TrEMBL record:
<dbReference type="GO" id="GO:0008408">
    <property type="term" value="F:3'-5' exonuclease activity"/>
</dbReference>
<keyword id="KW-0269">Exonuclease</keyword>
<protein>
    <submittedName>
        <fullName>MUT7 Exonuclease</fullName>
    </submittedName>
</protein>
<dbReference type="GO" id="GO:0006139">
    <property type="term" value="P:nucleobase-containing compound metabolic process"/>
</dbReference>
<dbReference type="InterPro" id="IPR002782">
    <property type="entry name" value="Mut7-C_RNAse_dom"/>
</dbReference>
<feature type="compositionally biased region" description="Polar residues">
    <location>
        <begin position="565"/>
        <end position="578"/>
    </location>
</feature>
<dbReference type="Pfam" id="PF01612">
    <property type="entry name" value="DNA_pol_A_exo1"/>
</dbReference>
<dbReference type="InterPro" id="IPR002562">
    <property type="entry name" value="3'-5'_exonuclease_dom"/>
</dbReference>
<dbReference type="InterPro" id="IPR037432">
    <property type="entry name" value="Mut-7_DEDDy_dom"/>
</dbReference>
<dbReference type="InterPro" id="IPR012337">
    <property type="entry name" value="RNaseH-like_sf"/>
</dbReference>
<feature type="domain" description="3'-5' exonuclease">
    <location>
        <begin position="336"/>
        <end position="537"/>
    </location>
</feature>
<dbReference type="InterPro" id="IPR052408">
    <property type="entry name" value="Exonuclease_MUT-7-like"/>
</dbReference>
<dbReference type="Pfam" id="PF01927">
    <property type="entry name" value="Mut7-C"/>
</dbReference>
<dbReference type="InterPro" id="IPR036397">
    <property type="entry name" value="RNaseH_sf"/>
</dbReference>
<keyword id="KW-0540">Nuclease</keyword>
<keyword id="KW-0378">Hydrolase</keyword>
<dbReference type="GO" id="GO:0003676">
    <property type="term" value="F:nucleic acid binding"/>
</dbReference>
Amino acid sequence: VSQQLKEEIGRGFAGLEDPLAGLLDMLESSSDWKGKGHSLGYYISTELQLWIKEHPAVQQSGIKLKKLQARVLQILAQCPANLLDPLISIYQLHTADRNYLLEHVSHLYHKGHYKEAAMLSIKLKLQPDQDVEKMCTPLLLQDKTNLVEDYVGEYPELQSKLLQILDSWCEPGFNISNITRQYQGLSRYKPDKFNRKMLNKLVFRLLDRFNIDPALCPNVINQRHLRTLNYLFYKRFVEKTMTQENWTDHVQSTVGENRWLQGHLIQLLISYCDLNTAARWAQRYNLPKEMLPYGVAEELQKLQIQERVEEAVKADSYEESKKKDYYQLPIPRADIHFLQTWEETLQCWEKVLQPGQVVGIDMEWKPSFGMVGKPRVSLLQIALKDEVFLLDLPRLLEQAETEGEKEKLPHFIQMLYSDAAITKLGYGMSGDLNSLAATWSALKDTDKQARGVVDLLKVDKQVDVLSPEQSYEDREFRQPEKGLSLLVQHVLGKPLDKTEQLSNWEKRPLREEQILYAASDAYCLLEIYEKLCKDPASFGLSSDLTESLVGKPSIKPRAKKQLNKQEVPSPSGQQCQGSDKDSPRPPAPISPKEFSVVCDNMLQGLGRYLRCLGVDVRMLENEDDHRKAAEIARQEGRVILTSGLPYQTLQSQVAEGRCFSVNCSEKAKEQALQVLKHFNVQVSLADIFSRCQ
């Protein structure tokens, strides 16, 4: 407010016999505060609030004050939110009769002014004397969840009560229209926003925000567990990407002692497996016969426990075949150290905290499957050239609690991350650091202090974080490791074996497969970095690799595309040699029948799209080496379509202009348009679906 206006307002108040009544006269006859933003009424009110402090004699009391309070309550029902605080303060509404205030709010509520009633209740702290369900239901129907959160914000008892109400609405069989029916004709009602999904999300947000025990909401938690169960069956029996052990671990920890979930598990086993398997699980949980479908109960009677020898044999041969297909750790098993005591970690720190040291760092945690809270890190892996240290964080945390050495381990981790003389390699490091901070509050600023960090996610622009066929539950942990596995394949020749990725990392002892997986995840970073540093050009990177990559771990998976464009020289979307700059004239137009291509792996979507348009397409399988594309291109006279790092290698193996790099961050349709435009392929109506799909 300008000084001149302030002085004018001050003089105005001084000239009034009763400034408090004067302000109300002004506001009652004013209409300018009905709009948005700060009105003149707002400025005058805030100035009066300050002016009263200097002139306390103008304060009223007794009957006079009560009359003013009755008038101001009428104004509060329709004035902008920014006027509430100054008016409540000026007219001392906190001292007004509580029943009188409650009655006024109730009157507003019954006139259908639910938002205004709630806001006034919050400002006057009336919530403990109100019915939380009654006050919050119409707000939820109007999609005002933020106001509901504020309403219970300072009252733990009301938070619990609200959560129990919301959970009761999520009970199987409960009809939500029972609630909506009571509020027919509600203004600004948003029925599409008021449903089970919204309620589920809200419950989890409130549990997390107010740090409340999830056991208070059994319906919502059970349904989330049931979705997890469905997801686990999908991973194991449809996608076939989860091992039997991992699957069993997760199923047991999801179902627990809950009879309702155990019943659903039996139904899922009947659908996906057979009666015998369902009966074995029924036996494991000691389920009463009356809970079981007839076939399962019958199978249970016949069931004799027998060791499945053939399964063990199958597993052995499977392990051998795996070695040929996946990246193998190049150091002996004896050089992987699992550290569970403070003394054991000292040898690790002595070796790691050396100037000039290069270390690969990774972390594992139990998949959250969408449950409340951030995941807590269960294992911290630190790889050096000759050995890998696996730190059992839950165990070390527990020990620190009992021995009063809480600061020591976080201190060493902070020293490691903040020392610019030690190069730390990671993949999607900011996600790891966030989880580390959630595990140990002392580490919450590690990401801000980090120096000498190389995040290899910045190099890898090859693969989107989520592949399209993944289920919705998977969004919770975003799986940047899929990208790492592909980066390992591009740079080192074989992908990582990710079957242990969704293990239960909290369970002890860890299985041998988990230990080898965890060590490989950290160690492969050293090998990738070494190879990229030796020959950055062949991977489309500038020679000052360390300069362009060492820095703060600022990448977050969701910001990946945008940051990569700025910070990493991109081979993606490059034209082939002899492109626009060298040949300003476009090539002669050709039809799709005359255009033959070979699509590198991970571009199957583009391949299928081009085939629909009549192009002669061959596609590499995901497990094929990229060099196979060059062989096919030479033998059959095809153009190679690739993207990212392999472009550099492949374009040197074929004639000029016969290798094209598409932008892999775009959808298949956009990629296809890019290819057709570059090679001047003219598609006619007759070409579409002219080839067998």
